[in-house]
Amino acid sequence: MTLSDAAAFQALTGATDDQIADLERFIVRLTEANAVMNLIGPDTLPDVWNRHIWDSAQLLGLAPDARTWADLGAGAGFPGVVLAILLKGRAGAHVWLIDSLGKRCRFLQEAVDALALPAMVINGRAEAQSLNVDIVTARAVAPMEKLLGYAQPYLQGGAQGLFLKGEKAEVELIEARKVWHFESSLSVSRSDPRGRIVSVRSLRRVQSR
Predict the structure, then answer these.
(1) Rounded distance, CA 173 to CA 180, Å?
(2) What does the DSSP 8-state code read for residue 179?
(3) Per-residue pLDDT tens over the stretch 6-58
(4) Phi and psi of 40, rounded to 5°?
(5) Sequence-distant (≥ 6) Cβ neighbours of residue 205 within 8 angstroms
(6) Which terminus has fewer CB within 10 Å in the chain: N or C?
């Protein structure tokens, strides 16, 4: 379902007025920052509620009981900041926003501080972190073969992977299976029927002969 604005998002998700206010404040910060650094494509801003906010928020419906999340390559804050806004106030909720680029981390930290989010920003490589979380996620970071390498420590620690991918997800999974053994399933994105959400568990590397 395509969403056009905050009212449509609230009607569909049941987001509270406070959550909508936080999301709107985040969009303002993102728009201002995007004018001086490339966080998202400028042409996607008019469709921000569907393309970015709803695209991120739909993950909560796939893991409603999850409280701890790691967003790899958190960049512009999708899905991590959106998830943190919607999880704010829930007991035990926490989102780790991990990115290797300092200027993106500064943007994320400013958003976390301004909105008092249950989140921590980590400036570093995703695969170098040691975090036990319920869900590891990423959006527009790398093809599945490489992304699974970044997510390996989290998946092997018991996390479920929920990765937002495009229409080439099936092809990426075929390539990834040349390097990795894993259990996976695909669901159609609710924000764009061309998109896919890849669920992954039980990752281990294929042994070379």
Answers:
(1) 10
(2) T
(3) 999 999 999 999 999 999 999 999 999 999 998 999 999 999 999 999 999 99
(4) -135, 160
(5) 152, 179, 180, 181
(6) C
Burial of 61 by CB count in 10 Å (0-12 exposed, 13-18 middle, 19+ buried)?
exposed
Burial (CB < 10 A; 0-12, 13-18, 19+), residue 147, is buried
Tokens of 175: 């390539």
| Identity of the amino acid at 45 | L
Question: At how many degrees (to 10) do helices 17-34 and 80-87 cross?
Answer: 160
Whether the model clears a pTM of 0.85, i.e. scores above it, the answer is yes
Contact indicator for 35, 113 with CB cutoff of 8 Å: no
Cβ contacts of 41 within 8 Å, gap of 6 or more: none
Q: Which whole-number Å values give the CA distances from 171 to 82, 138, 143, 147, in the listed order?
A: 28, 18, 10, 14
Are the CB atoms for 208 and 156 separated by under 8 Å? no
Q: Where are the alpha helices (DSSP H) in the chain?
A: 6-13, 17-34, 48, 55-57, 59-62, 80-87, 102-115, 144-156, 169-176
Collapsing DSSP to helix, strand or coil, 145 comes out as helix
Q: Which two structure tokens, joined as six digits, stand for 111?
A: 């958003």
Q: What's the rounded Cα separation, in Å, for the pair 198 and 154?
A: 15
Residue 14's Cβ-count burial label (10 Å; 0-12, 13-18, 19+) is: exposed
> Is residue 49 within 8 Å of 8, Cβ to Cβ?
yes
